[in-house]
Sequence to fold (157 residues):
Amino acid sequence: MKVIGLSGGSGSGKGYVAGLFESRGARTIDTDAVYRELTSSHGECMDELIAEFGKEISDSNGALERAVMRKLVFSGEKAEYNRARLNQISHRHVLRKVRSLILELQASDVPAVLVDAPLLFESGFDKECDAVICVTAPVDVRISRIMERDGISKEAA
Fold:
């Protein structure tokens, strides 16, 4: 089974490319979905994130408060440091789960698995792929797609 890294910015068309491969028997692992699972109510990643960033990053159910985390990693004096720490912690958990999912798929007759990972290179997972596909699109096209997909304004996109 081939492991193919799928990278590209939001709105670039990764989902479309993944659909093409899936129509030919490949499977896709969405690392954003894996991250959401790991940071859901008492997800595997949450204890370590709370230890690093404090209880205020979790809601009353023990899930990640994404707005709070966004503030920590994208604004303020420590944003760059916080973003690096978040990535160090979360990438380790996400990659462990992705490797586990790949092992499960290897037991089947799936010809290939696409690992949809916007931070494929930053996480180092590109080194574990047999091939890498990078999907690109002009910025204005990406913004338009994000607006339509998420139902948000141009500024938010």
User: Anything to note?
Assistant: Residues 80 and 131 are 30 Å apart (CA to CA). The beta strands are 2-7, 27-30, 112-116, 131-134. The mean pLDDT is 91. The first strand starts at residue 2 and ends at 7.
